[in-house]
Design a protein that fits this description.
Distance between the termini: 39 Å
Radius of gyration: 18 Å
Number of strands: 8
Shape: globular
Strand content: 15-25%
Structural class: alpha/beta
């Protein structure tokens, strides 16, 4: 799959395997969370998006692991690891998993990068546990509230209310793979709309990979994310924050990026023009430089 196509569907891409085995830790409910750890240096934690896995970060590992000890998990219910517990993978539960991962490896002053669902997980973590263990955070293309209403238009598409979300969940229950692809394809991004209508080989590859996933935990996870509202969390982030947003995001107008910047104290915003919900995948070298420069900057 060409780089551009993979970037448009980064949550669905299948990157190469590094050959480095995954470690794991057990949470307080007995779930086994898989984590790949590489490199040496200050801790850098990478949180992937919904339906994705640690593999989404493969293109960045050489650069990041050269200077950091990089932790990237398969979030609960993700990565092809069947759930062992009956616990639903909610935002709150994933935030608790993150706290227990940091505790398991005794990580302090961690830099945490969250893309999409990973950003929501990070905001939930800050809501529940504060910023004491964190040094800096990076948010990639996410709204603090993904559903819209008459008073909030900075969620998905600018017009994705409870009614539309309920219809989407019904689609997921009927045909999970097609529901996910339609969410990405019937979006604000013209390139993604065209690719979905063309229904080429890359789309079929993504469809087949989604069909291999256990849908119910991911539907439960989505339901939790859709119910979340982190607007009041933003002003409580008292550590340096880098925001990276796509200028042609599938889901969010650029006004969402500006809202997040304006509500996190002293946040730094980069908008990558003409790229989608995965700006880091489209402009990988720029993203690596932006993140490392941000980490190295004086706090």
């Amino acid at each position: 799959m060409p780089k551009g196509s993979a970037a448009a569907y980064t949550a669905l891409q299948h990157n190469y395997r590094t050959g480095i085995p995954m470690d794991h830790f057990r949470t307080d409910d007995g779930e086994r969370i898989h984590v790949k750890i590489q490199g040496d240096g200050p801790p850098l934690v990478l949180l992937h998006g919904w339906t994705a896995s640690h593999r989404d970060w493969n293109p960045f590992i050489d650069a990041f692991a050269a200077r950091h000890r990089v932790f990237r998990w398969d979030a609960r219910g993700h990565g092809g690891h069947p759930l062992k517990s009956a616990t639903v993978p909610t935002a709150a539960r994933m935030a608790r998993d993150l706290e227990q991962m940091l505790e398991h490896w005794q990580l302090r002053d961690a830099i945490v990068v969250g893309h999409s669902m990973g950003a929501l997980t990070l905001w939930q973590y800050i809501h529940d546990f504060g910023c004491d263990r964190l040094r800096k955070v990076v948010i990639i293309d996410q709204s603090p509230r993904i559903l819209t209403d008459e008073h909030w238009s900075n969620g998905i598409y600018g017009d994705f209310d409870e009614r539309r979300n309920a219809a989407f969940v019904r689609e997921l229950q009927q045909d999970f793979a097609e529901g996910v692809l339609r969410l990405v394809g019937h979006s604000l991004n013209e390139r993604a709309r065209r690719k979905y209508l063309e229904n080429g080989d890359s789309m079929e590859t993504a469809r087949q990979r989604l069909r291999e996933m256990a849908p119910q935990p991911l539907i439960d996870c989505w339901t939790s994310l859709a119910a979340a509202d982190y607007r009041d969390v933003l002003e409580k982030i008292d550590i340096p924050s880098l925001l990276v947003y796509g200028g042609a995001s599938n889901f969010y107008h650029t006004r969402t990026a500006h809202y997040v910047r304006d509500n996190i104290p002293n946040a730094l915003l980069h908008i990558y023009e003409d790229v989608d919900h995965a700006p880091h995948q489209w402009q990988r070298e720029r993203f690596v430089k932006d993140v490392l420069d941000f980490i190295d900057a004086d706090d």
